[in-house]
Each structure stands twice: as C-alpha cells, then as structure tokens.
Amino acid sequence: WLPAGVPTGAGPVDSYEVHLMDLGSGDLLYQAVGPDVTEWTHTLDADYGARQLAWRVRAHNSASWSRWATAFYFGVDTVGPAVDMALSGTAGNNGWQRSPLTVRLGGSDPFPGSGLAATYLQPGDTRWKQVIPGGANVVDRQGEFFLRAYGRDRALNRSAMIVRPVKVDLDPPYRVEAVFSREATSSGWYTAPLTISVTAEDVVSGVADRLVRVDGGSWQTDTLGLEAEGTYVVEFAARDAAGNETEIQQTTAKLDLTRPAGDIALNGSLCQTCSPATANVTGGDSSSGLAHWTLEQGGTVLASGSDPARDVTLDGGQLPPGSLTLRLAVQDVAGWV
C-alpha cells in the first residue's frame, strides 16, 4: 500500500485504513486510519492458531475508498506443544526388557496453538529421526541407553524433551560350557571324584545364574560335585540378569574309582609228561567294564583276551622245569589295572 503502488490516473492517496482481524471470531482486534500507517506497533496478548489472523488494508483518495487489498494471513503461537512417549515390550528381570521396544510418540498443541507438526526420536547416541505421531517405531538396540523425544508445532516451537532410560537385552548368554575339574582317560572315564562348574558370557545385562544338575535332579548354582561311581547325564544352562535363558545342554560324566577283579583257577597237574592242565582265567569290572587281560609266565605271554572267562591250556612239556609263577593282569575300560 505504498504510494508508488497507486494506479496511474488515480488521485493521490490521502488516507489508509488497516485492520487486524480474528478470522475465527470475526473480531476486529486492531484498526488504524490515517495518512501514514505504513509502520505501526501492536501487541497481541494471546496466541492464535495457524490462519486465524489476517492483516488487511485499503486506501482512500478524493474519489472514495479502494477495495480491500489481498489479506495477509498468519498465526501467532509462542507456546510449544506437549509430547508424550509410550513404550511396550516384553518385561524381563531387574528392569530389563527382553524384546525390541515399540515406541509411540503422541502429543497435542490445542487451540489456539498452531497444531502438532512433527515428532522426533533418538534411541541412544544415534541420529535424531522424524517419526509419525502415533505410529509404531521399533527400537532393537541392546544395552542401557536413553530414549529421547520432542515435538514441534507449525510455528516451529519445540516441546520439552522427554528422556527415558531403558535397558534392553534380547539374547541369552553365550559360550556356555561345563568345565570338569579333572582330565578324563582316553576312553572318557574319570578315575577320581570331580567337580563340574559352568561358565558363560553375556556382555549386555551380565550372567546372573549358572546352573548344573545330574540325572534330572535339582539344579545347583555354579558347581556340582560327583563322588560315586556311575554314568551321569549332566545338564547345564545359564540365565542373564534380564531373564533370558539358554537352552539346556547335555554331556556325560563317567566315574570308575576302583580296580577291576581277576582270578586264576588251575585244574590238573603240570609235569613234563602229564596231560595238559587248564587254567581258568576270569576278569571283570562292574563300573567301566572289562577291557582286556593278559596271562603270562616269566615274562612270556601265555594268553590274552577280553572275554570275562576263558580256559587256557597249559602244556607242562612246553614249560621250563622248576617253580612256576602265573601272573594275570586285568585292565578295565577306565584304565585301572
């Protein structure tokens, strides 16, 4: 509405009229009439939503008032919106979550605000990203971190920032192993009492429990001792602080703490001209079982085998004269002799 804009041929402008309108209510908030109203000051004492206000102006000359010029629409919003955060997931132990988090950001900027335009989310130290208000946002980050969120309205006012600490652990412990306190023999048997302990790792929430049991008995924490002969089914597992549990794993422990038994029974007589005699050899082991036996005389092996009972023929004519000693050595599977 500057004088330079007056159409050619029109008389000079002698006055202007400026209105500030509340379009929502139709109220006239401000009016100024005069020959020079190209600069003015007016303070609004309330916020108005988007396109709720309009400036309009017209000019006057000796002929009459002009039509109203094209209105300038605008809003005034000095207050940020309110934003809220809702979380859902599978709750674990000690404040941990055991599933990805579903995060929904909502909020409002009620009248006479300009309206909520956008919401923003930052999981941990990642980049901020704009998210749809009310939409589901899946956060699968693990560890302890902060969820931060804020919103802005159409006037670019920002809400207060929401900061929510969260703890997420999605995986059970790993490298779960049963550790035996002794080395087994080459055949896998243990020849002394032993202790079984469980080791595991978890770099997120940490290992809370290491569990071990034998033959379906009650679970023991960390370690378990075996002192009696037998074959045991050993089960072990681990649980982290969030409550994630590993699958139950199995191994075996075989204990043989005693030597095998053996005997020789001689039937008949030994002489240079006698009929051959018979040596009845027996051997056995009630734990790991018989591996083999050897019958010898004077360093010479007369017979060997793995059967629990056997008759060995002794021909006196093939043996040296004099006092003879028969020696039987029996070995079980565990290695005892």
Helices and strands, with pairings:
Elements: E1 15-22, E2 28-34, E3 48-60, E4 72-76, E5 82-88, E6 101-108, E7 116-123, E8 129-131, E9 137-139, E10 143-153, E11 162-168, E12 174-180, E13 189-190, E14 194-201, E15 207-214, E16 220-221, E17 223-226, E18 230-240, E19 249-255, E20 261-267, E21 277-284, E22 290-297, E23 300-305, E24 309-314, E25 326-332
Parallel strand pairs: 13-19
Antiparallel strand pairs: 1-2, 1-3, 3-4, 5-6, 6-9, 7-8, 7-10, 10-11, 12-14, 14-17, 15-16, 15-18, 18-19, 20-21, 21-24, 22-23, 22-25
User: Helix tally?
Assistant: 0
Return the average pLDDT rounded to an integer.
92
Sum up the overall morphology in one term: rod-shaped
Low-confidence stretches: none
Order of strands in the sheet with most strands = 13-19-18-15-16
- How much beta, percentage-wise? over 45%
H-E string: EEEEEEEEEEEEEEEEEEEEEEEEE
Kindly name the structural category: mainly beta
Report the C-alpha radius of gyration, rounded. Answer: 48 Å
Number of strands: 25
Cα(first) to Cα(last) distance is 117 Å
The major sheet is characterized as: 5 strands, mixed
Helix content: under 10%
